[in-house]
C-alpha cells in the first residue's frame, strides 16, 4: 500500500482543476490555491504534487512577479505548457507539450526547440521581421509539430516560412495571424496530408499565397477566415471544391463586429461558399447583410439533415432574417448550436416571436443565442418595458376590468379591501 500511495496522490492532484470555469466570453484564470493546499499535507504530498503545480507557467500572470528567478529556473524542468513574453531563460524545460513565445523571448530561449524535438504545439508571435532571421536555424530543427500558430506581421522570407510549415508533415492545425506579404505558396512542396483545421486571421487579398495554401490541404475539414468585401470568396470556393473533399465546416472570424454593410460579402459570394463542399456542411458561421430566403433555401436544401452549428450575424434589421432563422430551427433536427445576432437595435421583442412560428425539430440543442432585440427603458428601469411592443389581448383586458370592478365593489360594500386586493397577488 505504501508503494501505491504516491500514485494515489498523483491521481488526486490530476483531478484538481488549476483554472477557473470559463466565463461566458471564454476567459479562464489560473487558480492553484487548492493544489497548493494539498502540497502542505506532508513531505510525500509535496514531492508528488509539486511537478503538477508547475505544469503550466505563463509570465503574463500576476503571480510571476512574486516568483524568485532562481526558483523559476529550478522548477522549469516541470513545465509542460509554457508561455514566455519576456527574455527569461527556461532552458531546462525538456518535456514541453505546448510553447507560446513572443519576439525577444525567443532569442533568450533558442535552446527550447533544440531541447524539445517532440514539441507538438508552438505559438510564435513576432513583432518584426528582424527576429525571424535570427531564429530560422532553431525553426529548422522543428519538424514534429501538430499545432502551429504564427503571427509575424510583415514577413521578409516567405520561402523559408513555407519550408518551415511544409517540414512539419504531421501538422493538423494551422493558424496564421496578421501577416502581410504572403504572396505565393510553392506548390512543389509535399501536400499537408494531415492538416484538418486552417485558420486564416488576416486579409487574404493581401496574402494570395494563403489562398493557394488551401490547395495543399486534401484532408481539410474546417476553415476560418474573415468574410469581408476584400475576401477572395470565388477563389476560396474553387480551391475547396477542387482540393478539399472532406471539408464540413466554414466559419467566419469576428462575425459580431458588425461592419458597415458595404464591407460584407454579397449574397452571390456566400452562395458560392455554401455550394463549394462535396460533403454536407456540419458547421456554418457567416456574417451577411441579411439572412435572405435565397441563402436560407440553399443552406437547408443541401445541408439541413447534417447541420450541427448555424451562427448567422446580420447587419440589416429585416424581419426576413428571423423568418429564415425559424426555418433553420424547424428543419435541422441535428442542430446543437444556433446563433442569430443583429446589429444594435435590430428587432423588437414582438419580432422575436417569429422564431416560434414553426415547431422546432432541434431536440439536440445545447446552445442558443439571440442578440439584437431592443426594448424601451425609462429612467432607472433596467428591466425595460416590453408592453409597448405587444398589442394587448382583448380577453386579458376584460379579465383585468372585471377584477378591478370586484375590488371596487368590495371596498364600497364595507368588505375587506385588503383581502380584495389579493386578486393581484
From TrEMBL:
Species assigned in the record: Podila minutissima
Chain ranges of the F-box domain: 29-58
Pfam families listed in its UniProt record: F-box-like
Full protein name: F-box domain-containing protein
